[in-house]
Write a structure and sequence with these properties.
This protein has 311 residues and is an alpha+beta fold. It has two domains: 124 residues, FAS1 domain (Roll); 140 residues, FAS1 domain. Helices cover 32% and strands 21% of the residues. It has eleven helices and 15 strands. It has a seven-stranded mixed beta sheet. It holds the Pfam family Fasciclin. InterPro entries: FAS1_dom_sf, FAS1_domain, Fasciclin-like_AGP. Belongs to the fasciclin-like AGP family. Keywords: Signal.
Length: 311
C-alpha cells in the first residue's frame, strides 16, 4: 500500500514538472543571437552552423567561445578544434570556482579534456592557461557560454601540482534519521524545477533529514529515465537508495577520484564504480552530465544520464 501511494505521488509530481532531455534548437539560436550582440560574431555564426548537429543530442553543455580576433588570427578552425571548446556539462561560475588547479573537464572531442589552471589567488577562472569571462555571456541553466580571448589548445600540458587524489574513499554507510531539514527542502525544490521530480519525491518521503556530519550525495537520473526503469513497485526504495552516497561529494571531489574507486550507497551491498570514458566521468557505466545541480553544507546533487545499475 505504501509503495502504491508513493508511486501515485510520483505520477502527480511528473504531471506538474516537464521533462528535460535535450537542448532545443531554439535555445541554441537564442544563444547565437546573444553572442553576436556581445561582440562574438564569428562564434555566433559557427554555433548556428555546427552546434545543432551535436548539441541537440545533449541535455546540457558549456561552450567556451573564442573572440573575433582569435578567429582572425587563427583562420577557420577545424571541426575537432571547435568540439574541444564544447563541454557536455552545465558549469555555472559557482561550480567552476570549486575546481582546483589541475582538475580535468571532459569535452565533446573524444579523449580530450580541458585543464583548470586557476590558482587560489586568481579572481577569474582560467582554462588551459587562458582566462574566461567572469560571468557567462549566455546562461539558461542548461546551456552556458563563456568568452575567451584565444582558442584553447588541445595539446596543452599542465605542469603544476596535481589535485589530491581520493583513491580510498572514507564514505561509510550509516543509519539516518527522519528529522526535518532546510537542506533537504532546498534540494527538493531545485530538483523539481530541473526535471528530477522523482528523486525529489524520494528525498522528501524517504531520506528527509539525514543527520550524519558527512552529509549525502545524490546521483539523480531524469524523470523519464526513472519511469523507464521502474518495475515492481515494491522495489522502489531499493531503486532510489542505490543512487545516494552517505557523504557529501562535490564535482571537484568526484573528478579527483582515481579510476576504479568505489563509493558505498544506502543500498547495502550496492557500490558505485568510478571510471572515465573519453575524459567523461562515468558511474557504473552512466555519465554524469549535470554536476552540482545543488549543494549546501549537507547535500550535493549531480544529474546522471541514466539510472545506476549493478555492473
Amino acid at each position: 500500500m505504501a509503495s502504491s501511494i508513493f508511486f501515485f505521488l510520483l505520477f502527480i509530481t511528473f504531471s506538474y514538472f516537464p521533462l528535460s532531455t535535450a537542448l532545443s534548437s531554439e535555445a541554441i539560436f537564442d544563444a547565437a543571437d546573444v553572442l553576436a550582440d556581445s561582440g562574438f560574431v564569428s562564434m555566433a555564426l559557427t554555433l548556428e552552423v555546427i552546434a545543432e548537429s551535436f548539441l541537440t543530442h545533449s541535455p546540457s553543455a558549456t561552450v567556451f567561445a573564442p573572440s573575433d580576433s582569435a578567429f582572425r588570427k587563427s583562420g577557420q578552425p577545424s571541426f575537432d578544434l571547435l568540439r574541444f571548446h564544447f563541454v557536455p556539462l552545465p558549469l555555472p561560475p559557482q561550480s567552476l570556482r570549486l575546481f582546483t588547479a589541475g582538475a580535468m573537464i571532459p569535452t565533446m572531442l573524444p579523449g580530450k579534456s580541458l585543464t583548470v589552471t586557476t590558482s587560489s589567488s586568481d579572481r577569474i577562472t582560467s582554462i588551459n592557461n587562458i582566462k574566461i569571462t567572469e560571468s557567462p555571456i549566455y546562461d539558461d541553466g542548461f546551456l552556458l557560454i563563456y568568452g575567451t580571448e584565444r582558442f584553447l589548445d588541445p595539446n596543452f600540458q599542465y605542469t603544476g601540482p596535481n589535485p589530491r587524489s581520493n583513491n580510498n574513499p572514507s564514505c561509510v554507510a550509516k543509519n539516518y534519521t527522519a528529522n526535518s531539514s532546510d537542506s533537504f527542502d532546498q534540494a527538493i525544490e531545485t530538483l523539481k524545477s530541473g526535471g528530477f521530480s522523482a528523486m525529489a519525491s524520494f528525498l522528501g518521503t524517504q531520506l528527509s533529514g539525514v543527520s550524519e556530519q558527512s552529509g549525502i550525495t545524490v546521483f539523480a537520473p531524469a524523470d523519464d529515465m526513472v519511469l523507464n526503469r521502474i518495475g515492481d513497485l515494491s522495489e522502489l526504495p531499493w531503486f532510489f537508495r542505490r543512487h545516494v552516497v552517505p557523504c557529501k561529494l562535490l564535482w571537484n571531489d568526484l573528478v579527483n577520484f582515481d579510476d576504479e574507486s568505489e563509493l558505498p550507497t544506502f543500498l547495502e551491498g550496492f557500490t558505485i564504480n568510478i571510471t572515465r570514458n573519453g575524459g567523461v566521468l562515468v558511474l557504473n557505466g552512466v555519465q554524469v552530465f549535470y554536476p552540482d545541480i545543488f549543494f549546501n553544507d549537507k547535500v550535493a546533487v549531480h544529474g546522471v544520464s541514466d539510472a545506476l545499475a549493478a555492473q
